[in-house]
Automatic annotation (TrEMBL):
Biological source species: Uruburuella suis
Protein's recorded name: Transporter
Top-level taxonomic group: Bacteria
Family: Belongs to the sodium:neurotransmitter symporter (SNF) (TC 2.A.22) family.
SUPFAM superfamilies: SNF-like
Length: 452
């Protein structure tokens, strides 16, 4: 047990890394990253993503890690207490509140994506989506419209099943539930991922897809694209909504934060890149356009599976992989809200879980599902309810929380932030100056670009 707040610690560095990897490897890596690569020049986007992970990802992981472990508390109280002999002004709690609002926003639509994936798995197994014979784009588009857009009660049912799976694991606690789930689910995800990669890179014509994916077209690399990629890094690493702060609050003081941050970034990048190898070779092998946007996974890939030997089996494995990735992420985002509610109100954990999951389902998941059909006339800033949750959390709340976190480290924690890294080395000094002055400028640049 930790001496601070009698907080449990992760059983080992490996389990912590697996849990953090699970938190960061969700739809961001398996759904969002591939379609953004397809829309933005293939290898050019991949190259910029890897650079952005080094320049922004690792430093920002460290920002949230030092905040979380130093205070060993929920993501609200992490911005309180005192530093360098001075009490922290109450206004800093706003950073924590923005993070919680962002966590609510992402879960409002994220769990619905889980419901979509379950819909596909059930229909693939039950024959509702028959990929045993070649399908056309019209067929997959019609299936998506019929089973996702036009059946809100069905999608809500599958979304609820996904929520209940999270509930079952969360009731077992952070160490007994989330950690154990990560120890089982992350290796399984890797096995499924490698299985799919091997199958797809050995398809006839796969080389063209690999070339598109890895060979940068430098004419497509622009400052605007790089800023766009930087934003994806925040999404991919679950930065800006308290996940890293909450998870690192359970981290032993002996752990090397720099090493764990580097490993986290490497694992996230590796899985995102492998996800591309799982997708693009097969698209090019069967002549499917790679730039179909957010529907790439749901409307384009079924065409690929329908042209593949044992396509149904590979499709079920693929969507199961998506579901596992989504589950490992949703558990940790839920935990941000549960920990804050539980520690601020002293409610029993099970009660806090019911309030968080139930509240998000009623106020977030239900509107997100209905926004595509029964409530499709309801527009927020010209966006559907689903898209509005996505835009507000990803482009506003996460960015402001990340900005506040960097400023908090640079201007409030100061020397205590450097001490938390356990070293007064040149690297620590450079990181601190980088986070204090350069990172806020970059975040503001991303924030403004997202709103233009």
């Amino acid at each position: 047990m930790s001496t601070n707040n009698l907080r449990q610690n992760w059983s080992s560095r490996l389990t912590y890394i697996l849990t953090v990897a699970g938190a960061t490897v969700g739809f961001g890596a398996t759904w969002r990253f591939p379609y953004l690569v397809g829309e933005n020049g293939g290898g050019a986007y991949v190259l910029l993503f890897c650079l952005a992970m080094i320049l922004i990802g690792i430093p920002m992981i460290l920002v949230e890690n030092v905040i979380g472990r130093r205070r060993a508390s929920n993501s609200l109280d992490a911005f309180g207490g005192s530093y360098n002999g001075k009490p922290v002004h109450k206004a800093w709690k706003a950073v924590g509140w923005l993070g919680l609002a962002g966590a609510f926003g992402i879960m409002a639509y994220y769990m619905v994506l889980g419901g979509w994936v379950l819909t596909y798995i059930v229909n693939l197994i039950g024959g509702g989506l028959d990929v045993s014979q070649p399908l056309g784009a019209d067929t997959t588009k019609a299936f998506f419209a019929e089973h996702i857009h036009n059946r809100p009660l069905s999608v809500l049912f599958y979304t609820l099943l996904f929520v209940l799976a999270n509930y079952w694991i969360l009731t077992k606690g952070v160490i007994g539930g989330i950690e154990k789930a990560a120890k089982f689910l992350m290796p399984l995800l890797f096995v499924f991922l490698i299985f799919m990669v091997i199958r797809n890179v050995t398809l006839p014509g796969a080389a063209e897809g690999i070339r598109f994916y890895l060979q940068p077209d430098f004419s497509k690399i622009t400052p605007q694209l790089f800023v766009f990629v930087l934003g994806q890094v925040f999404f991919a690493l679950s930065l800006g909504f308290g996940v890293m702060i909450t998870l690192s609050s359970y981290l032993d003081k002996k752990e090397n934060l720099v090493q764990t941050a580097v490993i986290t970034a490497v694992v996230n990048t590796l899985i995102a890149v492998l996800a591309g190898f799982m997708i693009f070779p097969s698209l090019f092998s069967f002549g499917v356009a790679p730039d179909s946007g957010p529907t790439l996974v749901f409307q384009s890939l079924p065409i690929v599976f329908s042209n593949m030997w044992a396509g149904t089996m590979f499709a079920v494995v693929f969507f199961s992989l998506l579901l596992i990735a989504a589950l490992t992420t949703s558990l940790t985002i839920y935990e941000v809200l549960i920990t804050a509610l539980q520690e601020k109100t002293r409610l029993p954990r099970r009660t806090a879980i019911v309030l968080v999951l139930g509240g998000i389902f009623l106020l977030g998941n239900v509107p997100s599902v209905l926004g595509d059909n029964l409530w499709q006339q309801v527009r927020l800033f010209g966006l559907s309810i689903f898209d509005a949750f996505d835009f507000a959390s990803g482009n506003i709340l996460f960015m402001l929380t990340a900005l506040g976190s960097a400023l908090f480290v640079g201007f409030v924690m100061k020397d205590e932030a450097r001490e938390e890294l356990g070293s007064n080395s040149r690297f620590t000094g450079l990181w601190f100056a980088y986070v204090k002055y350069f990172i806020p400028f970059v975040i503001l640049l991303i924030f403004v670009s997202n709103l233009i």
